[in-house]
Task: inverse folding
């Protein structure tokens, strides 16, 4: 196992040496946008003092506030904690018509949301950190694992800790995470069965130095040879190794069926592995704004406490600015002031230049776009719908990438963990035959705004057909529409739960019963007329 440990440490060092330029870029951004990460990417400051000031280069707070709004808006548009922002649906459309299967997926979705937003899972706060990383550095990382007491556990991973590599399809399939644990924490991992052992050097520190920290590398990579039929980690698709850099000793070997790290990028440049962020796009404007702020502070000081000019007539001595002081000789016999302020420039012009830079920064972080609905509360319903469509169209590229790189793999990982723990209900036989394959249908506010046009198009067409039928008294145009299909599609677009909808067999029974009632009513209504005919014949 020592060979594996040496190999993992060597590969980590190789990947770390390849991203020095990125870390310089990230440091510049952290110092001016996300100060709590300042010095994090500087090896010389790896042991920064907790609580120390890190805002010296953040003169203006516009970019930092814009980043906070960006992260909050991403959450509200993609993963709002007060809504069920996705559903699990069968991959096979035929199974999608099976009521039992639909109800199973509805139950599974509800259970998933229950465990995801449980207090011990810590999902909401960690997802916010991922969005903050996206906005600042262009790369956000989430780690999803089981909680020691059952359920799910989430952790947003610091970008400085994680190195990753991609396969031939550009998908992240290998990660190396270096972090530090105290000797006591390492012993606890052994006690709960997370690790097999701890090195002797760590054991020797337990009594005298339990808070001494040791470096750990967690490596996850595709398993070169999957041994089917086994029940241990050798049968898992992904191999997992924990290595202590003190002696490069492997602490444990495990595996995963689904990749536990979700690495998402905001956008990527050609040939680049790490993402580029809104902060990167406007870093020049952020620097300019900071310098403008410094100048404006100096200028404001001069305006509030101005430089004074006076005539040297040999009479006026030191001029006192203390409250209530008397300065003889400050005015002429005619009352004309002999002391004047020095013109120091136009504050309004400087403020205008700063406002221009602030607008550029806010536009990059999409703040202006997210505030459209907030700033115009008097809009009509039509205007609101149009704004929603516009917002959905502008955000589609960004949000689509988050769904494919982050949210989709995260949900697959969550389902795998819950299934392994036996926390999902037994699958229907039809779903078992289909190997439990599913897809994710996103019902976030953004997704709904994108589908609003589709729904409104159907409704406009139907309204036009009804108006034509009423005008011409020609009901044949309505024969073009399959009402059952239309309303099922509208229900899906509006994320109506399957439990709210009747099954096809139940609908058929209701319609049959209604037809029988109508037939009986017709017979009752026709009975007097038939009796009259019979009486006339007799």
Result:
């Amino acid at each position: 196992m020592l060979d594996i440990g040496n190999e993992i440490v060597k590969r980590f060092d190789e990947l770390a040496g390849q991203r020095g330029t990125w870390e310089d870029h990230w440091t510049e951004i952290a110092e001016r946008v996300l100060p709590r990460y300042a010095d994090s990417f500087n090896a010389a400051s790896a042991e920064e003092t907790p609580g120390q000031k890190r805002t010296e280069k953040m003169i203006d707070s516009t970019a930092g506030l814009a980043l906070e709004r960006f992260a909050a808006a991403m959450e509200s548009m993609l993963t709002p904690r007060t809504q069920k922002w996705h559903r699990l649906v069968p991959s096979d459309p035929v199974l999608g018509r099976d009521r039992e299967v639909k109800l199973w997926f509805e139950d599974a979705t509800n259970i998933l949301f229950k465990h995801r937003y449980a207090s011990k899972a810590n999902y909401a706060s960690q997802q916010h950190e991922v969005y903050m990383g996206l906005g600042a550095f262009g790369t956000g990382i989430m780690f999803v694992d089981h909680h020691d007491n059952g359920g799910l556990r989430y952790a947003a991973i610091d970008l400085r800790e994680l190195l990753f590599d991609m396969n031939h399809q550009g998908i992240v399939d290998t990660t190396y995470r270096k972090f530090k644990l105290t000797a006591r924490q390492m012993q606890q991992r052994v006690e709960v069965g997370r690790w097999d052992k701890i090195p002797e050097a760590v054991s020797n520190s337990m009594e005298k130095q339990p808070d001494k920290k040791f470096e750990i590398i967690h490596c996850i990579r595709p398993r070169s040879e999957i041994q089917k039929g086994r029940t241990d980690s050798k049968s898992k698709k992904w191999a997992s190794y924990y290595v202590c850099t003190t002696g490069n000793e492997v602490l444990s070997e495990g595996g995963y069926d689904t990749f536990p790290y979700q690495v998402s990028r905001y956008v990527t440049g050609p040939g680049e592995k790490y993402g580029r962020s809104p902060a990167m796009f406007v870093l020049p404007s952020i620097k300019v704004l900071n310098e403008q702020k410094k100048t404006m502070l100096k200028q404001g000081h001069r305006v509030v406490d101005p430089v004074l000019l006076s005539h040297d007539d040999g009479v006026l001595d030191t001029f006192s600015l203390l409250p209530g002081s008397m300065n003889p000789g400050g005015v002429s016999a005619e009352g004309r002031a002999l002391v004047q302020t020095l013109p120091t420039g136009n504050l309004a012009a400087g403020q205008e230049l700063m406002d221009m830079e602030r607008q550029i920064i806010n536009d990059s972080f999409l703040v202006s776009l997210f505030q459209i609905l907030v700033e115009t509360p008097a809009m009509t319903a039509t205007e609101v719908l149009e704004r929603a469509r516009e917002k959905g169209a502008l955000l589609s590229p960004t949000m689509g990438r988050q769904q494919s790189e982050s949210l989709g793999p995260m949900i697959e990982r969550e389902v795998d963990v819950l299934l392994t723990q036996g926390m999902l209900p037994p699958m229907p036989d039809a779903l078992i035959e289909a190997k439990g394959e599913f897809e994710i249908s996103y019902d976030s506010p953004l997704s709904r705004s994108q589908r609003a046009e589709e729904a409104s198009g159907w409704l406009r067409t139907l309204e036009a057909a009804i108006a034509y039928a009423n005008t011409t008294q020609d009901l044949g145009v309505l024969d073009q529409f399959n009402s059952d299909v239309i309303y099922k599609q509208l229900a899906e677009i509006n994320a109506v739960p399957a439990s709210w909808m009747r099954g096809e067999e139940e609908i058929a029974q209701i319609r049959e019963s209604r037809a029988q009632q109508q037939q009986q009513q017709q017979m009752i209504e026709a009975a007097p007329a038939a009796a009259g005919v019979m009486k006339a014949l007799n």
User: Anything to note?
Assistant: Residues 381-500 form one domain. The first strand starts at residue 86 and ends at 90. The mean pLDDT is 82.
